[in-house]
Amino acid sequence: MQAEVQVPVQCTTQPTTPHLPVTDALQIKAAEYWLRLGEADEALSELENLPRKSWESPYAIEIRVTALGMLKEKNEIAVQE
Question: Most buried in the list 4, 55, 61, 81, measured by CB within 10 Å?
């Protein structure tokens, strides 16, 4: 039988990105869900409504890059047909 040992963890560095306001984080999450549904246009629309500071967060950038990649792929497929 193993005993659980709790080790206190202390963060010595500051987070590299500031926390997002809850409303902005929810909007970015909504954009992610649009991507899961295959709706890259809707995802980008959600991101466009963010304040500039939140628009530049790493999470928002990741979603934006993925959405743009999906649109590019979609356009390439349409051209080949």
Answer: 55
Task: Give the type of residue at 76.
Answer: E
Start-to-end CA span in the chain (Å): 62
Q: What is the pLDDT of residue 52?
A: 87
Sorted by where each begins, the domain ranges of the chain are: 22-80
Q: What is the pLDDT, as a whole number, of residue 40?
A: 93
Give the pair of three-digit tokens for residue 11: 């963060």
Spell out the residues 6+ positions from residue 33 whose beta carbon is closer than 8 angstroms to its own. none
Q: Mean pLDDT of residues grouped by 10 in the chain (81 residues)?
A: 49 56 92 93 93 89 93 74 57
Closest CA to 46 of 60, 56, 59: 60
Q: Nearest Cα to 19, choosing from 45, 53, 43? A: 53
